[in-house]
Amino acid sequence: MGIEAATARLACFMTTTMIIVGSVRPGRIGLPIAQWVRDRTEAAGHEVDFVDLAELALPFMDEPAHPSKRQYTQPHTIAWSERVDAADAVVLVSPEYNHSYSPALKNAIDFLAQEWQGKPFGVVSYGGASGGLRAAAALDQVMTTLGMVRVPVDVAINGAGGLVADGTFAADSKHVATLDRMLAELSRYDEVLRPLR
Ligand SMILES: Cc1cc2nc3c(=O)[nH]c(=O)nc-3n(C[C@H](O)[C@H](O)[C@H](O)COP(=O)(O)O)c2cc1C
Predict the structure, then answer these.
(1) Is 90 in a helix, a strand, or coil?
(2) Ligand 1 atom at minimal distance to the Cα of residue 126
(3) Architecture of 14-196 per CATH?
(4) Mean pLDDT, consecutive 10-residue segments, the chain of 197 residues?
(5) Which of 36, 97, 149, 159 is most enclosed, with most CB atoms within 10 A?
(6) In this structure, which residue's CA is closest to atom 3 in ligand 1?
C-alpha cells in the first residue's frame, strides 16, 4: 500500500483506549502519571476513557457466576462490563506493590472475562529502582490469560516518587518517546485484532 493510501486509512481509523489508574491510595503518584498518559494518548489521536479505580469504587468481586458466563447480577458489574466492551485497547498504569501489582487492579480485572478478549494492552509501570517491571510481568501473565495481546513496548518509570511534585509528573524525553511508541503500537494492533473480536 502506498503512503497516501495508508495515511488515508489511518485517518479514518480511531482507537478508543481505556487508561486504568491502578492505585487507589490517598496521595498516590499513580494519578498524575496516568494523567500524563491520558494527555499523550489524546495527543496521539486516540479516544480516551480514563478509569480511576478509586472513583469506580468496585466492591470486592461479588458475582455468583464465573465472569465468562456474563450472568451479571450487580449494576456496578454491568456498567463496568459495558465500559470495557467499548474499549479497543487498554493501558494499565500500575504501581509495584511487593513485586506485583495492586489488589484494586486485580479485583477490577477479575470482575470480567470476555470483555478483555482480543484487545491489545500496554503497561506503564512505576516504582523504585525496578521501574515496576515485576508488576508489569505479573500483569502480562493475567492479561494474556484473558486473551489480551501485549504490545512489545513497556514504559517503566524508575524512581517515580522523585518525578512527581505538586500533583504533576515530570516525564523525561525517554518516557515520552517510549509512551508514544506504545500508543502507535496499540493502534496498529487494534487494527489487526478488531476483526477477531
Ligand atoms: C504496599 C507497598 C508495597 C510496595 N512495594 C514496592 C515494590 O515491591 N517495588 C517498588 O519498586 N516499590 C514498592 N513500593 C513503593 C511504591 O513504588 C511507591 O509507594 C509508589 O508511590 C506506589 O504507587 P502509588 O503512589 O501510585 O500507590 C511499595 C509501596 C507500597 C505501599
Answers:
(1) strand
(2) 17
(3) 3-Layer(aba) Sandwich (3.40)
(4) 55 90 98 98 98 98 98 98 98 98 98 98 97 98 98 97 97 98 98 94
(5) 36
(6) 97
